[in-house]
Amino acid sequence: MCPTIPDLAETVVPRHLAVRIATVVTDTVVAEIDGELDLHTAPLLEAILLPLPPTGVRHIVVDAGNLHFCDVCGFRALSEINDVAVSHGGGVVIARPNRILRRISALVQECGPAARSRPIPLFDEVADALTTDAGTTDAGRGGSGWN
After folding, report:
1. What share of the chain has pLDDT > 70, as a percent?
2. Which of 10, 115, 118, 132 could cysteine-pair with 139, CB 3.0–4.6 Å?
3. Domain map of the chain by residue range?
4. Residues in contact with 81: Cβ distance below 8 Å, sequence separation at least 6, in sequence order
5. Is 61 helix (H, G, I), strand (E, B) or coil?
6. 6, 36 in Cβ contact below 8 A?
7. CB neighbour list of residue 30: distance below 8 Å, 6 or more residues apart
């Protein structure tokens, strides 16, 4: 027997996004994101990360290891944060992206309107992102560090 519409509505899990910030050095933070990054949760990420570059935090490592879902709107939020960080002499890198985030990154950065933005480098591990001479080398996959 198929569930009725009200039964399905009761099984919907609310969208969730948690963001934890850890300062590495004065101008570098790791933002661990957990949950879903989409049209509904992207404003939370923007509210937390967009104000950082004007305060001197130029380099943002987004630890996406616990990100379960990301749509194009979520990735565009990351791109917007990257644009602001770049305008302050830094940038965003993504560490521990899952297969879906890698695919969205490739599609958006190669084909979408965000192509005008500098690509966001992808790293397999947070340590890899942090050991690229503060992000100034070309060690990242899919991008060129924070230069």
Report:
1. 75
2. 132
3. 17-130
4. 45, 46, 49, 50, 60, 92
5. strand
6. no
7. 21, 22, 24, 61, 63, 95, 126, 130
- CA atoms of 110 and 115, how far apart (whole Å): 6
- Predicted pLDDT at 108: 81
Structure tokens that stand for 30 in this block: 């790791």
Mapped onto helix, strand or coil, the DSSP state of residue 127 is helix
Classify 104 in phi/psi space as left (phi over 0), alpha (psi -120 to 50) or beta: alpha
33-85 pLDDT, tens digit per residue, is 999 999 999 999 999 999 999 999 999 999 999 999 999 999 999 999 999 99
- pLDDT bucket at 28, cuts 50 / 70 / 90: very high
Specify the CATH number for 17-130; select among 3.40.50.720, 3.30.750.24, 3.20.20.210, 3.20.20.190: 3.30.750.24
DSSP, res 38:
S
Secondary structure class of 114 (helix, strand, coil): helix
Residue with tokens 């509904």: 40
Which of the four pLDDT bands, split at 50, 70 and 90, describes residue 14?
low
Give pLDDT, residue 132. Answer: 67
